[in-house]
Amino acid sequence: MTGTKIFAHAGEGAWTPTPDGNRRRVLLHTDELMMVEFGFDKGGVGALHSHPHVQASYVAEGRFEVTIDGRTEVLETGSSFIVPSNLIHGVKALEAGRLVDSFTPHRADFID
Which parts of the sequence belong to the Cupin type-2 domain (predicted)? Predict the structure, then answer.
């Protein structure tokens, strides 16, 4: 694992604006796994989309309306969800909040 960053500390990493008006920062990644923090203002939307990566998400703060494959639920701080590969999914922030997403394999499109 020489050269692979295996620890991240609070506040590390720069926030990057996302195309949908939110923000993200990559916390850690290897070829097999990536952890990314997303920040949303109240009313912020993560537009419906799909990708080949399996995604596991944790609601670190706030309340979100989460839609996966046509099914919608409201999740709050401490809740989580999984998005299997290629399913259409998206979120709406019902209040300001943060999601911590893990992707396998890593999202090459998130690495500068």
Answer: 38-95
